[in-house]
Amino acid sequence: MSKEQRLHPVAILFNFIKGIRQMIFLIIFGFVTFREDGLLYYILVIAAILILGLVSSILSWYRYTYRIKNEELRIEYGIFIRKKRFISKNRIQSIDLTQGVLHRIFKLTKVQIETAGSGNGAEVSLQAVKFAEGERLQNELKRGKNVDLEQEVIKPEFASYTISFKRLFVAGSTSGSLGIIIAILGGGITEIEQLIPERFFETTVAWVIGLSIFFIVGLAILVLIIVWLFGIAGTMIKYGNFTITKHHEEIFITRGLLEKKQLTIPLKRIQAIGIEESILRQPLGYVTLFAEVAGGTIGKGDDAATVLFPIMKKTEVASFLAELLPNYAIQEEEWTGLPKRALKYYLLRSSIFFLLASIVVFYFLPQFSLLPVLLLLAFIYLGYLRYKDAGYQVKGELLLLRYRLFSKRTMIMYHNRIQSFEKTQHIIHRKQDLGNMHISILGMMGTGSHYFLKELDVEMIDQLSDWYSYRDV
Fold first, then answer.
1. Is 446 left (phi over 0), alpha (psi -120 to 50) or beta?
2. What is the pLDDT at residue 357?
3. E strands in 256-397
4. Looking at 278-416, which runs of residues are DSSP E strands?
5. Range of 172's domain?
């Protein structure tokens, strides 16, 4: 492909919408400020800005060209200042295809190309090309040859995995997104409140106060159910049609009902595999499988790490890894846990805030003291779970760490993926032969991912330190 190519004309619309989205708060602020005095001037200014934005989008599209020549992708762009970017095929780490709603209407896709030095964003993002063109670009840049994908049938080395509707429903029901949605709604209501007339707001509050307590409780339960259903719908939209396939040295993940995404994960960029058991899913025997991937922006804005499979039975993890990531397929054995003298630290850390809150509430508002006491008991139990679940295993070159914040996590990582190993002790630790262990690996966007095991026996930390440093134990 030596001839210069332009993006699909729909890219003009995408650029125009992007510009409006960046100015939306300014537009709303201007409307609130000038809606009474100077509304005509406000409308004229907004119209002028929209016209300029449309002209700029058209020129940006016309001046943006790309082509593949001499084993590199060449891009030229810029309206007044012409810029050129050259990306060698050898530097390309992954090529992801994403289809939003508008993309799917016009049978287009967005091509995101990541390199080792992509930083906070993709190295190149082609906003809108024909889907067949996107696949052809992906094929040529990754495999170094131009192949007609309609004639080539790629047979995966291993079986693909998909998620059933039942599993997807369970994932949505136990996703824990209820609190996040409520927080977003609360923030949105706070912002909207400023635009609501004060008289209307006061009348509504007075009406709610005058209602029966049973009606208010019922209304609250109804709102929670609706928010819970939104959480289920969000999970299904995000992970609908989920498929993961391994081909050669890469893993391909396709997901999404409205916005269809195709992620490419080179196996050499995987730094660790994680198994997460949330408080809601653990009693049901379900887990989420994810990968810590070095560099790039895979999963940015969606997940802290790349989800390899949204939900599966814990008993299915071993066979799943055996087929897709056999190097990480291990059988768990007896864990090395924490000594009994570490328990008090975990109980104190998890409950100190609610202990102090209970004392304050009991002193000033004794009629409301039950709530902080219940929370205190709940977090004491959480502290016990954190103590009980923490531990590690060493299996040759593999290190397994297990810990809990709210969800229980098991991390599987190779020795050569660990970037640093740190042991810390304060004065009380030294008196009780305890210490904290801190391990770091490469994470998203070149930053580190960090794991801690606190109040380990010092002798165990020293053994792990010797293992990490290849010293004879």
1. left
2. 86
3. 260-266, 270-277, 286-293, 306-313, 391-395
4. 286-293, 306-313, 391-395, 398-404, 408-414
5. 166-239
Compute the average pLDDT of residues 390-418.
Answer: 94
Examine the pLDDT at 179 and tell me if it is beyond 80: no
The reported pLDDT for the residue numbered 26 is 81
Measure the N-to-C terminal CA separation of the chain; round to a whole number of Å: 58
Res 319 pLDDT > 70: yes
pLDDT at 431 over 60: yes
Give CA–CA dist 305/296, Å, rounded.
12
Nearest by Cα to 272 from 291, 295, 286: 291
Q: What's the CATH number where 10 sits? A: 2.30.29
The enclosing H or E element of 302 equals none
What pLDDT is attached to residue 158? 58
The residues near 255 (Cβ < 8 Å, ≥ 6 apart) are 238, 239, 240, 241, 242, 243, 261
Please check whether residue 148 lies inside any domain of the structure. Answer: no
Which domain-ending residue is among 181, 213, 239?
239
State how far the Cα of 291 lies from the Cα of 410, in Å rounded to an integer. Answer: 11
How would you list the strands of the sheet with 72-77, edge to edge? 5-6, 65-69, 72-77, 83-88
The two structure tokens encoding residue 225 = 């159910």
The number of C-alpha atoms within 13 Å of 93 and in the hemisphere containing its C-beta is: 23
Q: Which of 239, 259, 286 is the last residue of a domain?
A: 239
Q: Percent of the chain having pLDDT more than 70?
A: 82
- Measure the CA–CA gap between 249 and 143, rounded to whole angstroms: 12
